Every structure is written in structure tokens, then in C-alpha cells.
């Protein structure tokens, strides 16, 4: 501990290069009892990729059923179970843990910390997710099948589900506890363990976005816990929170859920904004345009996210005054988001840009996320939303934000940082195949859904009239292609790097990349910054 506290350590405080030699356990113990932030980050990323594959299989079953009109593959009840579990697994099993994995790996490296603040709690918050994931996936094999109430778990449907609903509620509680512990860890690490000279306003944007995200998680996860606990007591203990027969109100559930659910949407995109804010300057060879405005924009998105929840509920019979308030609040939150888009564009403007794979994903992210943002702005208009509510237009909108938003940013981060993790440079050709294959198949899958929604095709239906057949067939083919591209990514990009096959990565693979993470060798040694680094005036380089 004294090494961590000693600010006057060796000249420059460079990371000790222990190579693979370290003081922790080896073999399976290294992973089961992992307390090193890098190992835990790796575990999170592998877990989330596994869940992405499981959720993807469910999505492909949904698209197989919708390939043509009529019932081909599954019955309507199983179809609803698939849509419900696809949503839950992707949101709570794939996207959120992946961002926590990136946070675990990169935040200590970016701020010059020796590790995360609470190493054992870090281990615990990861392993909590395994039983939760098993419970979610195994619910398909329970009497009555998996929950089929939509990922939003709306009452009164949830009050009528079989025993798998209780298992699902328990799994959500455990995942929530894991999120809260991870967030506390990130906040304490960032506020207490920055290297001397690393002020808050000199922190990398990825650390900033995660700091704000962690506060959001601590604020809203208990709200979700409250909503699903009330559902549980309605199911088993005779309360009537959401049961109209006993004086309850199912619409109250929607208010509570979306008070959690809307900040949750930003929890899944703010770390992505942080990643893009790291990658774009590196490949534009310029400083990030408007750093301070990015920090303030991120903070204002977080604050405003608490006052827009009922834009998911324009069709619930809300008074016109309420509709107006939520409509204008939602339009307002698009302003700080637009600030970010303009800042990234201004960063690229007249920069000497090159398009290595991380930059391709970042530019792809900006393009498709902007489309998702515009459709969100359209859905914010109460009169339009009342027409488009629960149609495929909404499905198109949030997949543009979550797949093309969160997932594309994660791929950008993987290609950007993985040389530092593995010590191996990925194959640029394979990275570009993965990018273009994913971008094209993604748009083939989800762009037609805008037209389906405008034509009136409802969500969560296993069958549909003939006039929707062509666009649905197109979307199903695209979805299969998109899924295969992610399998390609794992087999031909990730696995070779994990096995150490490929060109050795230099310490700084990207010439214009800034930040402390590029001051340690590649692959990053097991122990870094045991003596806090001394920073230059910009807090991006070690003096010594």
C-alpha cells in the first residue's frame, strides 16, 4: 500500500515490467479469485460476448419466424418469450457488462491508478453475474416457459406469468447488485486514485463518461429493484400495487419502470460516447474539439435523462399538459447529444485522418447513431408517436441507437485497445471485413423496419399481413448476415490475439494516441503504476 501512497517514487514512476511474472495465483485460481483489474475486465468481456451470442440466437429465431407471413418456426407464446428474453439478455447480459469490462481494463490505466479501489468486491460483482445469467437462460426450460411480458416486464402480464417470472426477477436483482457494486468501485477509483497532476478536467473522456454513468447506475438500479419487488409481492403476497381489482394501477408500473428505463438508455450510450471521444482525436491527429463542452454535455444528458421518462407512455391516456412537458424535455435532451456529434465532426475537420479499423467503427458509429438520434427526435413528438407507438419504427429506432450505438463503439474500443491488452496487432484486413460486413448487414436488417413501422406493422407479433412480407424477408436475411459477421469477429480477430498469433504490437500502436495507457508496455504488465506516475502539464504523458 505504501507504494500506492508514495508520490515521490522512482523517476517518472514508470510501470514495473514484470512481464507475465506476477505475485497472484496462476492457472484456474488466477481467474476464479481474480483481483487484478485487467483479468476481471477480460472476464467481463468474455462473459458479455457469450451473452451477445445467446441473445443473437434468440434474435435469429425471431427473424426466422418473421421471414414470411404465417407461423413457421415458433408458436406466438414462444415468440413472446423470445422477444422478452432477447431484450433482457442483450441489455443486462451483453451491453452493460461489456462496458464494465472496458472500464475495468482501461480506467486504472488511463488515470495512472495501480488497480481498482476495491479489488475483491470487483471479483464478487463479476461472479454474481454468472448465476443470474444461468437463471435467465434456463427460464426457457421451466414450467410454462420463459417470461413473455416484454423486456419491460409490464404488469398485468407479469402478474399472470409462470414460475420463470420469479426466477427472472431474482436474476434482475442480482444483476442490479452487481451493477451497483461495479459503479461504487469506478467512482471511488476515479475520485481517489488518480495520479498526482491528473485533475478531473484533464481526465480522458472515457473516464469522465464512466464516472457520470456510474452515478446514473447508483441512482436508477434501486428504482428497477423496487418495481420488480412490487411485482413479486403482487404475485405472491396479496399486495395490489399493479392489480386494478385490488385498487392498484398497471400504469404506475410503467412510470416506475421508465423512471429507471430512460436513464438506463443513457447508461448504455454514455461510455460509448467516451470511447468515440478517445478514438476520433487519435486518428484525426488533433486534440478533441471542445473537451470542456463534452464534459458538460455528458453531465447535462445525465441530469435531463431523469425528466423524460414518460415519452415512452404518450399512449397511456396522459393529460395534454403532461404530453407537452415530456415532448419538450425530450427535444431538449437532443441538444447536448448534438453538441457531441458536432464536436466529433469538428475534431475530424481538417485533421490528417486515416481510416484504420478503430476509426472506421467510430465514423460508422457517428453515422448510424445520428440516424438513431433523428428517429428518436421524431418519436419525441407526441402526435407522431401516438401513430408510431409499438410499431417497427420504434424497433428500428432503438436498434440504431443500441446496436449501431453501443455495439459499434465497443468494436471500435476493442480494435483500439486490444493491441495494448494482448500485445498482438489484429489483422487490418480482417478488421475491415468485420466492419463493412457488419455495417452493411446491420442497415439491411434495421433500415427497412422504419418503413414497416410507418406502414403500421406492430411489434411483438409472430404473424403479419402479406403487404409486409418483402421488407421482413430482407430484414431476416440481413440479421443472419450480421450474426455471422460477429462469429467471424470472434474466430478470426479475437481468438488469434488471445492465442498470441500475429504481429507483435508496439508500446504505442497509434502514433497520435494520447493518454497514460500508451505509457506502459504491450501487452500491459500484470502490475502497472505501483508507483504513481509523474505527469506532464497535459496529464497525458509520464515525465522521466
Concise overview:
The chain is mainly α and 544 residues long.
Protein model, in words:
One of its GO terms (cellular component) is respiratory chain complex IV. Its EC number is 7.1.1.9. Its main location: membrane. With 544 residues, the protein is mostly helical. The chain has one domain: Cytochrome c oxidase-like, subunit I domain (Cytochrome C Oxidase, Chain A, Up-down Bundle), CATH 1.20.210.10. Helix content is 65%, strand content 1%. It is built from 18 helices and two strands. It has a two-stranded antiparallel ribbon. Helix 3 packs antiparallel against helix 18 (469-498) and helix 9 runs parallel beside helix 12. The longest helix is centred in the first third of the chain and has 36 residues, at 76-111. The two termini are 23 Å apart. The model is unreliable at 1-21 (pLDDT under 50).
Largest sheet: 2 strands, antiparallel
Helix-residue proportion: 55-70%
Radius of gyration, in Å, reads 23 Å
> pLDDT under 50 segments (min length 5)?
1-21
What is the general shape? globular
Regarding CATH, which class?
A: Mainly Alpha
Average pLDDT, rounded to a whole number, is 94
Write down the secondary-structure element order.
HHHHHHHHHHHHHHHHEHHE
- What's the N-to-C terminus distance? 23 Å
From the 3D structure, determine the CATH topology. Answer: Cytochrome C Oxidase, Chain A
Number of strands: 2
Total of helices? 18
Class inferred from helices and paired strands:
mainly alpha
The spatial strand order of the largest sheet comes to 1-2
Q: What proportion strand?
A: under 5%
Counted up, domains total 1
The CATH architecture = Up-down Bundle
Amino acid at each position: 500500500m505504501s507504494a500506492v501512497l508514495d508520490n515521490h517514487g522512482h523517476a517518472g514512476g514508470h510501470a514495473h515490467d514484470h512481464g507475465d511474472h506476477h505475485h497472484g495465483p496462476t492457472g484456474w485460481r488466477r481467474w476464479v479469485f481474480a483481483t487484478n483489474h485487467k483479468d476481471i475486465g477480460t472476464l467481463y468481456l468474455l462473459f458479455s460476448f457469450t451473452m451477445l451470442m445467446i441473445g443473437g440466437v434468440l434474435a435469429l429465431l425471431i427473424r426466422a419466424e418473421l421471414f414470411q407471413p404465417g407461423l413457421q418456426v415458433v408458436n406466438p407464446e414462444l415468440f413472446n418469450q423470445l422477444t422478452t428474453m432477447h431484450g433482457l439478455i442483450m441489455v443486462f447480459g451483453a451491453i452493460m457488462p461489456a462496458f464494465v469490462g472496458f472500464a475495468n481494463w482501461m480506467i486504472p490505466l488511463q488515470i495512472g491508478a495501480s488497480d481498482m479501489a476495491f479489488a475483491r468486491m470487483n471479483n464478487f460483482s463479476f461472479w454474481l453475474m454468472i448465476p443470474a445469467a444461468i437463471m435467465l437462460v434456463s427460464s426457457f426450460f421451466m414450467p410454462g416457459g420463459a417470461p413473455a411480458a416484454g423486456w419491460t416486464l409490464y404488469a398485468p402480464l407479469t402478474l399472470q406469468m409462470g414460475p420463470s417470472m420469479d426466477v427472472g426477477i431474482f436474476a434482475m436483482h442480482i444483476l442490479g447488485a452487481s451493477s451497483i457494486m461495479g459503479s461504487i468501485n469506478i467512482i471511488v477509483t476515479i475520485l481517489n486514485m488518480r495520479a498526482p497532476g491528473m485533475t478531473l478536467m484533464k481526465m480522458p473522456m472515457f473516464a469522465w463518461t464512466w464516472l457520470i454513468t456510474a452515478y446514473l447506475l447508483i441512482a436508477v438500479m434501486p428504482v428497477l429493484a423496487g418495481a420488480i419487488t412490487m411485482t413479486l409481492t403482487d404475485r405472491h403476497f396479496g399486495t395490489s400495487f399493479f392489480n386494478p381489482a385490488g385498487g392498484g394501477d398497471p400504469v404506475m408500473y410503467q412510470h416506475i419502470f421508465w423512471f429507471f428505463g430512460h436513464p438506463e438508455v443513457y447508461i448504455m450510450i454514455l461510455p460509448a460516447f467516451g470511447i468515440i471521444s478517445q478514438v476520433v482525436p487519435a486518428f484525426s491527429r488533433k486534440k478533441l474539439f471542445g473537451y470542456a463542452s463534452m464534459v458538460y454535455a455528458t453531465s447535462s444528458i445525465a441530469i435531463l435523462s431523469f425528466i423524460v421518462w414518460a415519452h415512452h407512455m404518450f399512449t397511456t391516456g396522459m393529460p395534454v399538459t403532461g404530453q407537452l412537458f415530456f415532448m419538450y424535455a425530450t427535444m431538449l435532451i437532443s441538444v447536448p447529444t448534438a453538441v457531441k456529434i458536432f464536436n466529433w465532426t469538428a475534431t475530424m475537420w481538417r485533421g490528417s485522418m486515416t481510416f484504420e479499423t478503430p476509426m472506421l467503427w467510430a465514423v460508422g458509429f457517428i453515422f448510424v447513431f445520428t440516424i438513431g438520434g433523428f428517429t428518436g427526435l421524431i418519436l419525441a413528438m407526441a402526435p407522431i408517436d401516438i401513430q408510431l407507438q409499438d410499431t417497427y419504427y420504434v424497433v428500428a429506432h432503438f436498434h440504431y441507437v443500441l446496436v449501431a450505438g453501443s455495439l459499434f463503439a465497443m468494436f471500435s474500443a476493442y480494435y483500439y485497445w486490444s493491441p495494448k491488452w494482448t500485445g498482438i496487432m489484429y489483422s487490418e484486413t480482417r478488421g475491415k471485413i468485420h466492419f463493412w460486413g457488419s455495417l452493411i448487414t446491420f442497415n439491411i436488417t434495421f433500415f427497412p423496419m422504419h418503413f414497416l413501422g410507418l406502414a403500421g406493422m406492430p411489434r411483438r407479433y409472430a404473424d403479419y399481413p402479406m403487404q409486409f412480407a418483402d421488407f421482413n424477408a430482407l430484414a431476416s436475411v440481413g440479421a443472419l448476415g450480421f450474426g455471422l459477421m460477429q462469429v467471424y469477429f470472434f474466430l478470426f480477430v479475437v481468438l488469434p490475439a488471445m492465442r498470441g498469433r500475429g504481429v507483435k504490437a508496439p508500446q504505442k500502436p497509434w502514433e497520435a494516441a494520447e493518454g497514460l495507457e500508451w505509457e506502459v508496455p504491450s501487452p500491459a504488465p500484470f502490475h502497472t503504476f505501483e508507483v504513481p506516475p509523474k505527469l506532464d502539464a497535459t496529464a497525458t504523458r509520464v515525465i522521466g
